[in-house]
Design goal:
Elements (H helix, E strand, L loop, with lengths): L5 H20 L1 E2 L2 E2 L6 H5 L5 E2 H11 L5 H16 L10 E2 L6 E2 L7 H16 L8 H12 L26 E2 H13 L5 H12 L10 H11 L11 E3 L2 E3 L4 H9 L5 H13 L44 H13 L3 H20 L4 E2 L6 E2 L5 H15 L5
Antiparallel strand pairs: 1-2, 3-4, 4-5, 6-7, 7-8, 9-10
């Protein structure tokens, strides 16, 4: 068990109840909405069933013991599958009435990955059979395989085409390929070992072991040039361009998916702790935000002043990512630290009278984005289950 004080344990219990209540409040007959229905949420289309958001919620709703949430988990994946593109891609989001599907400006690659992960979770732990969504799964995997490099066995993508949708990561992206390896393991896809091998050589080019492939050695040379080992995986690797801003979510997912060995996993954790990225609430999603003077800065990052330093994906605090941080700590056996971080996460969700804020400014802690974020609630529940030993991926 944990040495947390009684008030913190009580807060964790309260947050668990509030999380379940929020998921039920945001549930429609067709699936789970990304956020609570407000005028602002409607205007910004947060009252949609998002591929990535819904998948994370599905894993928390499954096993909740609440019949409505259990049924809503299946309905969420059904709604996304019903709007699957002919080429196999799962939409970025669909509206609850099934009238609209959006695929983002340069394509949304991770909705398909998350949908597959949630499908596998429901097949293993929910009420559906092992062949449920079989045709949709085959098409989704085929779409992803068409984007896999035939030697590196890693997915390739445009910039700003995953959850960090106004960050300039492109080529081989850490976050996306951590999910891809997880999908490969879950569905027993070919070349998983090659994916693991090249993942660790491309995203960690500072190790002593040289890759065998001559193009991988050249990318390694570009990545190392003029840089020091950041203590974690690079956020992306492209031809002569890499990201060393410190992508917390991608690194945490690399731990959870088994891509990082024990030594690398502990280095990642130590680097995130040294940067105080989880203080006062977990967790800042970038350790070294990109300034306007940085070579990777893009004009679109400053649109509406949204992705400037310490904001949004460029160093804001995202509680749902904090849930994955707690799960990674639990997986590594760092239970006392994980319980402490879970308490901090409950505080973040409690802020503003249980506002379940989308994200906070990384320095001022000002609450930003939409209230009533479903995946905040879901990630908290998944993190607590991981610590209690009652959850399974």
């Amino acid at each position: 068990m944990t040495a947390l004080d009684a008030p913190t344990l009580a807060l964790i219990d309260t947050c668990s109840k509030a999380s379940l209540d929020l998921l039920q409040a945001n549930l429609t007959p067709h699936g789970i909405l990304a956020a609570s229905r407000t005028d602002a949420a409607v205007a910004r289309r947060y009252t949609r069933i998002f591929g990535r958001d819904a998948a994370i919620c599905v894993m928390a709703m499954c096993g909740s013991g609440n019949p409505a949430l259990e049924q809503g988990a299946v309905a969420s994946l059904d709604a996304l599958a019903a709007q699957q593109a002919a080429n196999g891609q799962i939409p970025k989001y669909v509206d609850p009435e099934g009238q609209d599907a959006d695929f983002w400006y340069l394509g949304c690659i991770d909705a398909t990955l998350w949908w597959l992960i949630a499908v596998d979770h429901l097949r293993r732990h929910g009420s559906v059979g092992p062949a449920h969504w079989d045709g949709e799964v085959r098409r989704a995997i085929a779409w992803l395989l068409a984007q896999e490099h035939q030697h590196f066995r890693l997915l390739q993508q445009n910039e700003a085409s995953d959850w960090a949708d106004i960050m300039p990561r492109s080529g081989y992206v850490l976050y996306t390929n951590a999910l891809w390896y997880d999908v490969k393991r879950r569905f027993a896809l070919d070349h998983a070992q090659e994916t693991l091998y090249h993942f660790n050589h491309l995203f960690n080019p500072f190790q002593q072991d040289l890759p065998e492939y001559h193009r991988a050695r050249l990318l390694r040379h570009y990545a190392r040039r003029g840089r020091q080992d950041p203590g974690m995986y690079l956020s992306f690797v492209n031809l002569s361009v890499v990201g060393d801003e410190g992508d917390v979510f991608g690194n945490v997912l690399a731990i959870q998916s088994g891509l990082a060995d024990q030594d690398m996993a502990r280095r990642i954790v130590d680097t995130i702790i040294a940067a105080r990225a989880s203080e006062p609430w977990p967790v800042r999603v970038v350790l070294h935000p990109l300034t306007r003077q940085h070579e990777l800065w893009r004009p679109y990052m400053g649109r509406h002043q949204q992705n400037i330093v310490h904001q949004y994906h460029n160093g804001g605090i995202w509680p749902f990512v904090g849930g994955f941080w707690v799960m990674a700590l639990a997986q590594l056996g760092l239970r006392e630290l994980a319980w402490t971080e879970l308490g901090r996460l409950a505080r973040a969700n409690e802020h503003g009278d249980w506002r379940f804020t989308e994200w906070f400014h990384g320095k001022t802690l000002a609450p930003m984005g939409m209230a009533g974020q479903s995946w905040n609630a879901a990630a908290f529940l998944l993190a607590r289950r991981a610590l209690q030993g009652t959850g399974s991926a």
